[in-house]
């Protein structure tokens, strides 16, 4: 007796067999693949949007620099709010690694669109006396009009922060209009673009220090000093900034680095991204269970086919690889659709936000790997179960 020669299935044969099995129940296949597509798409979109957001933040920091430091009054030992000496900007400017210094002082004034608005309705807008070199130091850009120069700083002229202008109903077309500043009318000469490194300035109304003293009789205390340091000496300047700003009480000076706040925000966003990826993984797990369910039902429904193939000489290995291939193909269909969905959502959102598109390659490769793992794990049990059926049992039960 001549033993039967084992027939090897080619890759093309496996693909044809797998696709034939899936085409028999298209709706069931679509629903199973949809669960995987949603899971992969959700995870890829979350990672892509987060990466695009970080790319935008990094580009802004590259443009604005991470060498901006701030010094502001802290608290005294008694718990009272400290003050900075008037000479603080000049003393800080004498440091060898500092090349730009500016300051602002909070004024006890409120800004209104007109003088008939109740004084309690401040709208969150604050008024600052400022030095004329503030934009150069903090990296602020004018959206409209002009910043204060030495001449304008002497007169009742103001520049509005981005959010302050919106709350006062002043647009880029309204340069030269007047607003009410608690005691008198002042002229709007400019509006700033959003200040990325110091977003609190977006709510500010800025008037020259001499004008605040002359027209409002306010000798403002320094609220915050902004310092640009040599990028290679930021840590060094930060260490001595308190002593330079207030030699008598350096412990009463609070020193910070605005870019660190943005970096911390990015880290918080990354943690939130991890949570969303976890939720996407749950959806992916549900999709994997759908694959198992589809393949188990397929084995039960196709027992006659399995018995016929076994009777015609197919080995257990042939049956096992056939059903495993179906599960892998089903998962790949869902995973491929999920990658397209995730990439499309990322591209659309990044374009809407005017961010650079950043879709990490590791996320795409990870999505494909997760797809293959789900297909392999989800199809293993049904494939083994199909392979264990004897030809007689399969034909009789079918």
Notable characteristics:
398 residues, alpha+beta, 11-stranded mixed beta sheet, 12 helices, 11 strands, 15% strand, elongated, disordered N terminus
In short:
This protein is an alpha+beta fold.
Strand and helix map with partners:
Elements lengths: L10 H13 L2 H39 L3 E6 L14 H6 L4 E9 L4 E2 L13 E5 L3 H5 L3 E4 L11 E4 L1 H6 L10 E4 L2 E9 L11 E5 H8 L7 E6 L4 H12 L7 E4 L1 H44 L1 H9 L4 H38 L7 H28 L2 H7 L1
Parallel strand pairs: 4-9, 6-8
Antiparallel strand pairs: 1-10, 1-11, 2-4, 2-10, 3-7, 5-8, 6-9, 7-8
* Count of all domains: 2
Q: Spell out the helices and strands N to C.
A: HHEHEEEHEEHEEEHEHEHHHHH
Shape label: elongated
In terms of per-residue confidence, which ranges show pLDDT below 50 for 5 or more consecutive residues? 1-5
First and last CA, distance: 31 Å
Helix percent band: 40-55%
* Percentage of residues in DSSP E strands: 5-15%
Biggest beta sheet attributes: 11 strands, mixed
Structural Rg? 34 Å
So how many helices? 12
**Mean pLDDT reading:** 82
DSSP strand count: 11
Output the structural class: alpha+beta
Describe the structure in your own words.
The chain has helices at residues 11-23, 26-64, 88-93, 134-138, 162-167, 209-216, 234-245, 258-301, 303-311, 316-353, 361-388, 391-397, and strands spanning 68-73, 98-106, 111-112, 126-130, 142-145, 157-160, 178-181, 184-192, 204-208, 224-229, 253-256. The two termini are 31 Å apart. Strands 1, 2, 3, 4, 5, 6, 7, 8, 9, 10 and 11 form an 11-stranded mixed beta sheet that branches. The protein has 2 domains: 11-61 and 263-397, no CATH class; 67-257, no CATH class. With 398 residues, the chain is α+β, with helices and mostly antiparallel strands. The chain is elongated and about 105 Å long. Helix 1 (11-23) crosses helix 10 (316-353), helix 9 packs antiparallel against helix 12 and helix 10 runs antiparallel to helix 11.
